[in-house]
From TrEMBL, chain A:
Organism placement in taxonomy: Eukaryota, Metazoa, Chordata, Craniata, Vertebrata
GO cellular component, one term: cytoplasm
Location within or outside the cell: Cytoplasm
UniProtKB keywords: Cytoplasm, Metal-binding, Zinc, Zinc-finger
Gene: RMND5B
CTLH domain: residues covered: 155-212
Zinc fingers typed RING-Gid-type, residue spans: 371-406
PROSITE patterns: CTLH, LISH, ZF_RING_GID
Organism of origin: Equus caballus
Domain of life: Eukaryota
Name the record gives this protein: Required for meiotic nuclear division 5 homolog B
Pfam families to which the protein is assigned, alphabetical: CTLH
GO BP field: proteasome-mediated ubiquitin-dependent protein catabolic process
Limits of the RING-Gid-type domain: 371-406
GO molecular function: ubiquitin protein ligase activity; zinc ion binding
From TrEMBL, chain B:
Family annotation (PANTHER family): E3 UBIQUITIN-PROTEIN TRANSFERASE MAEA (PTHR12170:SF2), MACROPHAGE ERYTHROBLAST ATTACHER-RELATED (PTHR12170)
Main location, first listed in the record: cytoplasm
Localization per Swiss-Prot or TrEMBL: Cytoplasm; Nucleus matrix
Residues in RING-Gid-type domain copies: 252-319
Subunit details: Identified in the CTLH complex that contains GID4, RANBP9 and/or RANBP10, MKLN1, MAEA, RMND5A (or alternatively its paralog RMND5B), GID8, ARMC8, WDR26 and YPEL5. Within this complex, MAEA, RMND5A (or alternatively its paralog RMND5B), GID8, WDR26, and RANBP9 and/or RANBP10 form the catalytic core, while GID4, MKLN1, ARMC8 and YPEL5 have ancillary roles. Interacts with F-actin.
Molecular function terms, GO-annotated: ubiquitin protein ligase activity; zinc ion binding
Pfam families xrefs: CTLH
Organism per entry: Equus caballus
Matching PROSITE patterns: CTLH, LISH, ZF_RING_GID
One annotated GO biological process: erythrocyte maturation
Xref: SUPFAM superfamilies: RING/U-box
Protein name per Swiss-Prot or TrEMBL: E3 ubiquitin-protein transferase MAEA
Length: 406, 334
């Protein structure tokens, strides 16, 4: 934080100086122009009258000339004085930020293989689809001449299409989707289908008394939900009584609230994400949902989440990048220390990082067993062994203990 | 947000990632300052010249008419000075304000509102991706992404586009644009030879390096790439690469299709401390959810075994063998 504050201080000083200088510059030049203008007017009238240049006027003009010279030269030198403040900004940046960034691994690890670059581009495209940034993804495909599987794109395109329709208050596509995923939605205890029907019903109600018959007949859609949503259905049926009077003046006016639309988008987004196995974090609570295989192939609807103020689900690329943000400075530091102390032997396994990176418990995706005795990760050739007492150590450690005569 | 970043960690990351974010607008500020100084100096000397002429005339008993016309000349030069000064100051002020905007954005990393902090991190990744895309030459994508993410002010698109123009004109065997660029940056170039300021050289080298990379199709090691590599390594475990794919995790980024291939040549994470994750629930196994080993050697969390228990029996999800619940033994991990 101090780094930003340090640079900001210098920038603020420069901004202040520009402001002051600008005002002063304009003002002085205005004054000069005004003064000269007056002199010119006097001279012009003297010219008209045919009188020669008076001594007084000549003196005043000489003084004016001196003043002009002094003023403009000071303006130039005052501006020059700002230079040191400007360069202090640059110095503050150099002091507080590293101008060189180095890789953790050899530079050429992804470069030399064109294929890796293409895979990276593909990962970015996938990420963009998950973000709902379809046009950006398409543009990247074009510019990098990548071909994305239609199979991959399909779910994103479909779900975004449904959301767009919802934004335009068209419930059709969402309903279709909800019906075709009914079973799984029920397993999730989702009330999306009911809510969609309810919204349609309310919209009919808002159409006034002429829509009464249509609303009544639409109400049959509530039948399968009668048990779960009895109370809400009663409320809606009750509201029909006030249709002639106008719902806005009735105790049921809350039904006409616009927030229902925002709510349905949110419900749809959450349920679609959960169905496709994505965990959705909201700023207020963390909900992790039951895991479903092939999760990483699905639509993330991230931009919808953002639009609704939900924090983003955490897709693979984003997570990896965020981990990198934590890891990078740690690794750069240790690399510098190793090089400085010339003990490059410490980083001997090029296939393992030299230091542990703390990412937090939510990033523990796999079990890791490190032998408490030898402090090394176990592997297939050196697996963990459970002792009779219930403690677990690595086989190498066990062998060492045995051979140590214990 | 899955990855925890403390305030101190975020600060360290800013230090290594954000140099270009601030230095590039600073260099523009510097350039515009020098241009402003030049303009002011030039117009000032014009004013001084006509005023000197007027003074000379005054000392030799001039006709009123000639004085009037000289005065007109003074007015004109003063007006030009005023105009140029105002324009130049506006330009420098603009670039100083851009520096300010970027700093203010960077400061938001430490917001204590989780939604704002989350948004900042997302924008950070978008910013780095835009730079990466620019380095790869995917300009349209970069511009689109910057626009959609609302980060146009925060990325150095112009720098890359200028370099692109220079390069393209060179490809057309036209030297005019390149020469214009050299002229534009002349004072900086000249000064660099004189002052040998390392930071300045680096900025210029960055600019030229970009050109070189494109010309010779060398790799682009954007901040994005380097960060991603570090991140993939920090997550990578041997289980992401088991041949039968049995230990892949749907949550693990490195297990996902594309990233799995990308992470292959990278080093693995270093783990000095054990941590066990239950395959059934994805939850951590610790004193609240003790690890239990079935007779076949596989370990699951106590809570998970409870949840899959039926008629006092459990079915191992990996091997489908059936055991009695009581056959599960507690293991101790240190």
């Amino acid at each position: 934080m101090e780094q930003c504050a340090s640079v900001e201080r210098e920038v603020d000083k420069v901004l202040q100086k520009f402001l002051t200088y600008g005002q002063h510059c304009e003002q002085s030049l205005e004054e000069l122009l005004h003064h000269v203008g007056q002199l010119r007017a006097e001279l012009a009238s003297a010219a008209l009258q045919g009188t020669p240049l008076s001594a007084t006027l000549s003196l005043v003009m000489s003084q004016c000339c001196r003043k002009i010279k002094d003023t403009v030269q000071k303006l130039a030198s005052d501006h020059k004085d700002i230079h040191s403040s400007v360069s202090r900004v640059g110095k503050a940046i150099d002091r507080n930020f590293d101008s060189e960034i180095c890789g953790v691994v050899s530079d050429a690890v992804w470069d030399s293989r064109e294929k890796q670059q293409q895979i990276l581009q593909m990962a970015i495209v996938e990420h963009l689809y998950q973000q709902g940034m379809l046009s950006v993804a398409e543009e990247l495909c074009q510019e990098s001449t990548l071909n994305v599987d239609l199979d991959f794109k399909q779910p994103f395109l479909e779900l975004n299409r449904i959301l767009e329709a919802l934004h335009e208050q068209d419930l059709g596509p969402a309903l279709e989707w909800a019906v075709s995923h009914r079973q799984r939605l029920l397993e999730l205890n989702s009330s999306l289908e009911f809510k969609l029907h309810r919204l349609h019903f309310i919209r009919l109600l808002a159409g006034g008394p002429e829509k009464q018959l249509e609303a009544l007949s639409y109400a049959r859609h509530f039948q399968p939900f009668a048990r779960l949503h009895q109370r809400e259905i009663q409320v809606m049926m009750g509201s029909l009584v006030y249709l002639r009077l106008g719902l806005e003046k009735s105790p049921y006016c809350h039904l006409l609230d616009n927030s229902h639309w925002a709510e349905i988008c949110e419900t749809f987004t959450r349920d679609a994400c959960s169905l496709l196995g994505l965990s959705v974090e909201s700023p207020l609570s963390v909900r992790t949902l039951p895991r479903v295989p092939d999760r990483w192939q699905c639509a993330g609807l991230l931009s919808a989440c953002w639009a609704l103020g939900l924090a983003a689900p955490a897709p693979a690329l984003f997570c990896s990048f965020a981990s990198g943000c934590v890891a990078l400075p740690v690794l750069m530091n240790i690399k510098a220390v190793i090089e400085q102390r010339q003990c490059t032997g410490v980083w001997s396994h090029k296939d393992e990082l030299p230091i542990e990176i703390e990412l937090g418990m939510k990033c523990w995706y796999h079990s890791v067993f490190a032998c408490p005795i030898l402090r090394q990760q176990t592997s297939d050739s050196n697996p963990p062994i459970k002792l009779i007492c219930g403690h677990v150590i690595s086989r190498d450690a066990l062998n060492k203990l045995i051979n140590g005569g214990k | 947000m899955a990855v925890q970043e403390s305030a101190a960690q975020l600060s360290m990351t800013l230090k290594v990632q954000e140099y270009p974010t601030l230095k590039v607008p600073y260099e523009t500020l510097n350039k515009r300052f020098r241009a402003a100084q030049k303009n002011i100096d030039r117009e000032t000397s014009h004013v001084t010249m006509v005023v000197a002429e007027l003074e000379k005339t005054l000392s030799s008993c001039p006709a009123v008419d000639s004085v009037v016309s000289l005065l007109d000349g003074v007015v004109e030069k003063l007006s030009v000075l005023k105009r140029k000064a105002v324009e130049s100051i506006q330009a420098e002020d603009e670039s100083a304000k851009l520096c300010k905007r970027r700093i203010e954005h960077l400061k938001e990393h430490s917001s204590d509102q989780p939604a704002a902090a989350s948004m900042w991190k997302r924008k950070r990744m978008d910013r780095m991706m835009v730079e990466h895309l620019l380095r790869c030459g995917y300009y349209n994508t970069a511009v689109k992404l910057a626009r959609q993410s609302g980060i146009e002010d925060l990325v150095n698109i112009e720098m890359f586009l200028t370099a692109k123009e220079v390069e393209e004109s060179l490809e057309r065997r036209e030297t005019a644009t390149c020469l214009a660029w050299c002229h534009d940056n002349k004072s900086r170039l000249r000064k660099m030879k004189d002052l040998l300021d390392p930071a300045r050289w680096r900025m210029l080298i960055q600019q030229f390096r970009y050109d070189n990379y494109r010309l010779h199709q060398l790799g682009n090691n954007s901040v994005f790439t380097l960060t991603l590599q570090a991140g993939l390594s920090a997550i990578k475990t041997p289980q992401c690469y088991k041949e039968d794919g049995s230990s892949k995790s749907p949550d693990c980024p490195v297990c996902s299709r594309s990233l799995n291939k990308l992470a292959q040549p990278l080093p693995m994470a270093h783990c000095a401390n054990s941590r066990l994750v239950c395959k059934i629930s994805g939850d951590v196994m610790n004193e609240n959810n003790p690890p239990m080993m079935l007779p076949n050697g596989y370990v699951y969390g106590y809570n998970s075994l409870l949840s899959i228990r039926q008629d006092d029996k459990v079915v191992c999800p990996r091997t489908k063998e059936v055991f009695h619940f009581s056959q599960a033994e507690k293991v101790y991990i240190m």
